[in-house]
From TrEMBL:
It comes from Yoonia phaeophyticola. This is Tetratricopeptide repeat protein. The lineage of its organism: Bacteria, Pseudomonadati, Pseudomonadota, Alphaproteobacteria, Rhodobacterales. SUPFAM superfamilies: TPR-like. It comes from the Bacteria.
């Protein structure tokens, strides 16, 4: 294997975008198993983008694997971070999914704590 082969990504940007769109279409049509196969394939190819990890977490949630979805979200937080670099919508979406996972797995206190933070008025909303 040459040095050039080691550094080239397994997928081009166009291929990655196509697969992510395909995952979305399958998920929207309720074919979670096929969408999950694509995510698993992308991970096997070494894809490590935030979009792939969040797709994995969402699909685990849709399949009823709430503990696995939480594990995926924890992994995503480690890999992509949770700091100021993330936009507010991304942070809120991850937290919403986490709350749904907690609620679905019977951990109401954790779910309610996150929900309270998500529904609390923000400083900007109070100023308006």
């Amino acid at each position: 294997m040459t040095d050039q082969t080691k550094t080239q990504p397994a997928l081009t940007d166009r291929q990655r975008d196509y697969l992510l769109l395909t995952i979305f279409v399958f998920a929207q049509h309720g074919d979670h198993a096929r969408a999950k196969q694509i995510v698993d394939g992308m991970l096997a190819l070494g894809e490590r983008s935030e979009k792939v990890f969040i797709s994995q977490a969402v699909l685990e949630f849709f399949c009823g694997n709430h503990a696995e979805a939480l594990r995926c979200l924890d992994h995503l937080d480690q890999v992509a971070g949770t700091g100021k670099a993330l936009d507010q919508d991304t942070k809120r979406m991850r937290q919403y999914l986490r709350a749904r996972c907690y609620y679905a797995s019977g951990q109401q206190a954790e779910a309610q704590s996150i929900a309270a933070k998500l529904t609390a008025p923000t400083r900007e909303a109070v100023r308006q």
